[in-house]
Amino acid sequence: MSSPPHSLQTSRRHFLRGMGVALALPWMESLPLLGQVATSAAKAANKPPLRMGIVYFSNGVEPQQWWAEGSGADMQLGPGVLPMMPHREDMVFIQGLYNQTAASSSSPHLGRMNLLSGETVSLDPSVIRVGTSMDQVVAAQIGGRTPISSLALGIEPNELRLEDGLSMIYGSSLSWVSPTKPATKEIYPARTFDRLVGDGTGRKLDRSILDEIRQDSQNLKPKISRDDNIKLAEYLESIRDIEKRIEHAAKEERLEGWRPTLTQPDMPRPKDELPQNIPDHMKLMLDLTVLAFQMDKTRIATLMLNNDLSQMNFKFIEGVHGALHLDITHHKQNQELATMHLKTNQYHLAQFAYLVQRMKDLKEGDSTMLDNSLLMCASSLFDGDAHGATQLPIILAGKGGGSLKTGRVLDYLDQENNGRRVCSLHLSLMDRMGVKLDRFGDTDQRLAGL
To answer: Domain 50-187+274-432 belongs to what architecture?
Structure first.
């Protein structure tokens, strides 16, 4: 016999319910102990889950500006990494890792879009193949513990054109559910929000989710601890904030990048669901990633801040003007363009820093969401101007539930090639997520020193 909608019996998941809506609650200490004696075993079983988040930015970095040295609070960061300065003790700066198949590929861009698989990218135009990505290997094994096995998010749409005779599906996709099939990338905040908090039927956002579950949340408040009441209030406020920002974004008329040739539409105006302001769009997708982790709707997420060979216009950054991202990164040593590329690097890192801070601010018992996560920020190239892939820019953040020591710089440049494989990092991260493989991509070795 099923439990009544407002039952607070102990279960693996806890919900606030309204008409057609079941809103999963964030992790709280109080909830698993309702209706039972608080035992040490129950408390031990009530640990926050471990999450994995991967943030991707395209076209590499300015090599001379991308560095770190030292450790902990004394760590020094190069100009390209400065947005992470407040989080030096929460991160691991990794240099020297590479994908062997990417470094040897004859396709300077698309042949290197195997950041998370390490497999060879097919250069046969008739065959799409890049290898199953690390996040999807994890999702296949642990994704069944949550309603959504993994989230693949982005800002720019998938491109169907060819580049150097190859499909731009490579440049539009970071996450691959099989060697030949990319994960479906969602770029619409409203659709992502519906998937997280709706009833799975594409519920329209014409009424606040919070209006639907108000009574259930009021009933819950006297039954949980003071700290969990604070967490509940913050959680519901974050839902309200995202609702308001999605509504605002849908009404915006601004456009970034390409400008249309028509000043007035020559067809009926469709519903405008996609934010037309890049900073707002990126922040929404980052906040939705945090919300997905809070609700335990998924524990695995990837976010592409832009596609490879991106057409994004960064003119909203002070000092950046007159060129698309692709042109800025391919500057041929033009100092003005190189300076603008540095600014875009800093902007990308600022987005990652925002995610780190959001997760650091969310308490989970004696730890934080960041403590219980493994985050990665990376690109598929190092030197964007030279298409250099002999090493990759990679930053980790979060303690992985205590499995990762942070506040360090790890340098593998002096290692033999077998000790520099990024797939060794992937094996080590998958181990921490509870997925242990004998081999992944081009290696069977874990990353030494991680």
So the answer is: 3-Layer(aba) Sandwich (3.40)
